Amino acid sequence: MNCWEILELEPTSDKKKVEQAYEAKLKMINVEEEPLAFQKLKEAFDSAIFLSGTLIESNRPVEFSKPSIETDTAVESNTKGWPVEESQEVPSENEKPKQENNVIVFKQELATVYEKMDFFSDVEKWTPLFSNELEWTNAEYDEIAEIIQTFLRLNYRVLSGQIIDYLDTFCDVDSLAKEHKTDNDFRYIWTQIKHVPPFSFDIYQDISKEERIEYFTNRYELFQIVEGAVPNQSSWSDRLHMCRTLTTKDYDVITLQISYLLLNDFRMEQDQTVIEFKGLLSEAIALKRNKTSAFFSAYYAWVKQKGSTNDVLIYDKSELTIPTTTVNLLMGYVYFKLRRYSHVKECWEELSKKNPTLFRPQELAMLQPIDVKHVPQKNQKSMWRYVGAVFLLLIALSKISGIVSRNNERNSYSSLSDIQSSFKEENNLETNNVTADLLELKESENLYEQFIYYFYIDREDEDRASFIEANTVGQAKEMAQSMTVSELPEIMIDSRYDFYASPDNVAGYGPVTALTLLDEEKPFIILQEDKEERISAIFGDGWEVLAKDKFEALWADIQVRPMMSQKFFVVYYLLSDERNENLKDNPEYATENVKKLLEKNRSMPIAKEFEAGTWQISQDEEDKLYTIINDKNDEHRFILSYDEYGRLEHIYGDEWETIDDTKKKAIYDNAEEEKIGVY
Asked: Which stretches are tagged as biased composition: Polar residues (predicted)?
């Protein structure tokens, strides 16, 4: 329904009639109980008031320049009585005089554009309005700029960012707002206008003209509900129902449904959440495959421990078409599991202010770390000397002056031992603060956290020898017992969230754990463990020397996961024209058997049929992990298996390796129905 139908009023230029119709309708609505109906009526009123202005102007007669009767040396009349300057050419007989008021023409054309209801995202629909821009006077330009501001204020919810940028290009609305050359209300709302959701409007042809404004307005409000981070089930359900009643093929609405679902259960702990999520994601992928659906797919795989954290964190927030709230919520949860404090804070700090009920106490605690202050021992000693010197100087001055009695001296100045005692209490307090914040590392069940505590946090702890005896063996024990701990490089760790661990099982090394500081690309230390989970080797500065290339190769192996190996095969082999270089630079993703296969088939054409392909997770009767690689037509083409280190172990497919038909059928039968993409 358009604004006139909502107001039950014929299009008119009389603003009083519009106001009367609005007031009559308003009496029929309970504003508190029917907020959506009120908002719909208010939007119709605003639009009608705006359109009534264009009708007023369009009813005025079009005026043309009158021919001049008098002539002089500068201006002379032609045979038709049309005044021209000497430098001008005489217009032809068929040429019409120029229209005086360009504002009238602009309003008429704007009303025409609005009535067609196809102006949402197509710039070509707007170009006729500015075809004579060079003919506008300064006064006309200012008036047209005000018209555009009014139009944007009323309709930004149903405009694409491309259209808003286009209008801003002509009238420089952004500069006008910054220079306070617009009214205060517009300056306030301009920030919202500039940051409209990155929606697609291709769906408008599936919606009747009368319902397009209402549909796109409701879709915008759905986005804002999610962005606000506070679930509002009543408002959400009403607006979603209005949208889904008109069409079920809007990709953006479906991804908003997924976002709202995760706003209520981003950990995906409830079975109903998983069921609804998979159903909605399948709907979305059936309509469009893009980075947003791939992001959701990667997050689901990670939550179910079948995907890599890198597959989630690799996405740029600006490339996704969902609310920033959703992206921050999900990425923050991944960082929380990795215990990367600074990244968690970056993602969740604003969200926790909007709606702290989204998070559990331990999650909120990570956003409020204790501020730890370290006092180096050398500085403490110099402080004692300084305090002692000041004290002696004061004593000397008091004796020389003879003004203060000895009793007063005792009352006025503390003894050196008292001052030292006072400073010790302060230092003990600070030490206790450090211990209170980081003591969890010492008492942790994780061996690597205890190691961090004894060798990088509190190197004087009396329990360090016991830790070495109980938890290290071989060369690691010898080094830990004989080394001078103070010679280890200083690692700035003020919180248990300043570093993260990457445990893995690596060929040639066995169980290892890499410890990396936040915002660093490489670990500062790697711990190797024996079968009894004791530290058997320590690689890093100050410990066992491992050649740079071997250290980097070990770190690369630690980062290998089945999903990363699969991605290597599809993206960096099947779809790449640089296979030789990729094989040379990424040996960690394949076993020797697979390396021979890849080398054998490296001359095959680029397999473009996998650019829009999908993959499915499966397993055999022994719960061994497989992934099924499908082409763009969803036909099964490859089955990949992995060894215990996450490397490609077998590639089954035509002209590759063969697999028993019974086993192949079992893998296909056990595959999850959800098909995940895009690479």
From this structure: 68-80
